[in-house]
Amino acid sequence: MVQLHVKRGDESQFLLQTTCSISMEDLTQQVTRIYNSRLKVQRICSEMEELAEHGVFLPPNMQGLTDEQIEDLKLKDEWADKCVPSGGSVFKKDEIGRRNGHAPNEKMKEVFKKTIEEAKAQISKKQVQANVCVNMEMVKDALDQLRGAVMIVYPMGLPPHDPIRMEFEDKEDLSGTHAGLEVIEESEAQLWWAAKELKRTNKLSDFVGKNEKTKIVVKIQKKGQGAPSREPVISNEEQKQMMLYYYRKQEELKKLEENDDDSYLNSEWADSHALKRQFHGVKDIKWGPR
C-alpha cells in the first residue's frame, strides 16, 4: 500500500493508505472528505466543551442580550424547558451571552469530557508521529461517539439552532468565519507532490510509479493558490541535531588545542636538568652582562 503523508501548508494533517492504481479523482475526493470531516470533529468538540460549561444555545434573537434587555423585549427561550440535561442542570451564566447557562451536572460533564478526549485522539495530528493511518471510518466513528454522548446527556435533543445539532445534520453555516476558511470544497481541492499538481485525470501510478511500498508527502489546497512551498531537504528537528553535533565537535577541538599547548615547557618545573644543575651549584648562573 502506498502511504500518503497529507499536509496543509507545512502542517501535518494525517497519514492515508491507498494503492498506485487509484484514480486521482477518487483519491482527491477521499483526502478532502477526511480532511473536512476532521475539521468537523474539531468544531463539534469545541462546541461540546461550551455545552458542558454553559448549556444549550440561545435562540438567535436572544444571543448577546442582557437579562434586562430580554425582559424589556419580552423574549422567551421556548427550548429551555424542552432541552434539559439528564440528572438536572447546574446554572452557570455564559458571560458571552450565547448559551442559556443551564449546564449539565458533574457526572454528565464527565461523559462529555471523556468522549471529547477520545474523539480528538482518534483524529489527532499526533497520529502521524505514531505512524497510524486515518481513514473515513475512523472519522465517522469519532462523530458517532460525539453524537452518542450528546444523546446520553440531552435525551430530548438539542435546539435546531444549536451549532452542534446543525453540524450533525450537515446544516452548519460557516460563512464569514475562520473555520469556513479552513474547509476545502471537493470540487476546489488540489493535491500537490514534489511541486507538481497531481491532476485528477491521471492515476497515482502516473506520478509515483507502481511500487506499492512508496511513501510520499502530498499537500492539499484550494484551486488558484499556486504551487505550495517545497518540502525542506531536512526537517527542523534534523537541523537542530546537526547543529548540536557540530557544536559538540567544535568544543572537542577547542579542548584538544588546549591540550596541545606546549608553552608549559618553558616553566622551571618542566626543566629535566634543573635537579642536576642544583647539585652542581650552577642553578641561577646568568651569562649576560650585569
Task: Write a compact overview of the structure shown.
This protein has helices at residues 24-54, 67-72, 106-122, 126-129, 136-153, 163-168, 178-182, 205-208, 236-259, 274-280, and strands at residues 2-8, 11-18, 89-91, 102-104, 189-193, 196-197, 215-222. With 290 residues, it is α+β, with helices and mostly antiparallel strands. Belongs to the CFAP298 family.
Descriptive account of the structure:
Helix content is 42%, strand content 12%. It is an alpha+beta fold. It has a 5-stranded mixed sheet with strand order 2-1-7-5-6. A two-stranded antiparallel ribbon has the order 3-4. Helix 1 (24-54) packs parallel to helix 5 (136-153). It is elongated. The termini are far apart. The mean pLDDT is 88.
Question: Could you name the key traits of this structure?
Answer:
elongated, 10 helices, 290 residues, CFAP298, Cilia- and flagella-associated protein 298, alpha+beta, five-stranded mixed β-sheet
* Beta-strand percent range: 5-15%
Pattern of helices and strands:
EEHHEEHHHHHEEHEHH
Helix content: 40-55%
Oligomerization category of the chains in this entry:
single chain
Q: Give the strand order of the largest sheet, numbering strands 1, 2, ... along the chain.
A: 2-1-7-5-6
Low-pLDDT stretches are none
The counted number of beta strands is 7
Question: What structural category characterises the helix and strand content?
Answer: alpha+beta
Tell me, rounded to a whole number, the average pLDDT: 88
Biggest sheet record? 5 strands, mixed
Based on CA atoms alone, the radius of gyration comes out at 34 Å
- Count of separate DSSP helical elements: 10
What does the overall shape look like?
A: elongated
Distance between the terminal alpha carbons, to the nearest Å?
93 Å
